[in-house]
Amino acid sequence: MVVIMNHKTKAMIWLSIVLLILLVSKSLWLDPVKGLEGELLKYKDYAQSTAPLKTGALIWDSTIFTYEVVSVKQTTEEGSTKIKYQDQKGEWHEEELQGEYTAKVRSYIFRIFPVRDIRIKGGVNDGK
User: Of 51, 53, 82, 102, which one has the fewest beta carbons inside 10 Å?
Assistant: First the structure.
């Protein structure tokens, strides 16, 4: 069976392919926050391990969903933030960071398609 495509159909297929390539590039290389050091890196690890717990639905915790931290900010230098996080080696740490922090974690389907943004504010004992 021969499928005949007109010029507009071919253009739409090529446009879809280009947009998919751009989405994959954005999701894999541009979205994840990079170059963090010190307390910002520790809070990033805390947000990464806390995000799946903040979703509240079992479907979000399946293996097709992944989570990437897309921003980390220190909102104030006053006060402190208690965190419990798992580092890249898989070891758990508890620390108290100077200041207050927020992070935005994005959930993806198959590491490519963004689904939801999760905002993490404060630490483990904030109650906020």
Answer: 53
Residue 108 structure tokens: 């993806």
Q: What is the pLDDT of residues 14-43, one digit of tens each?
A: 999 999 999 999 999 998 999 889 899 999
Inter-residue contact 71 to 104 (CB < 8 Å): yes
Q: 74 and 40 in contact (C-beta within 8 Å)?
A: yes
Residue 95 · residue 59 · CB < 8 Å:
no
Question: What's the pTM?
Answer: 0.77
User: Do 44 and 95 form a contact (C-beta atoms < 8 A)?
Assistant: no
DSSP 114: E
In the chain, DSSP assigns E strands to 65-86, 92-109, 113-121
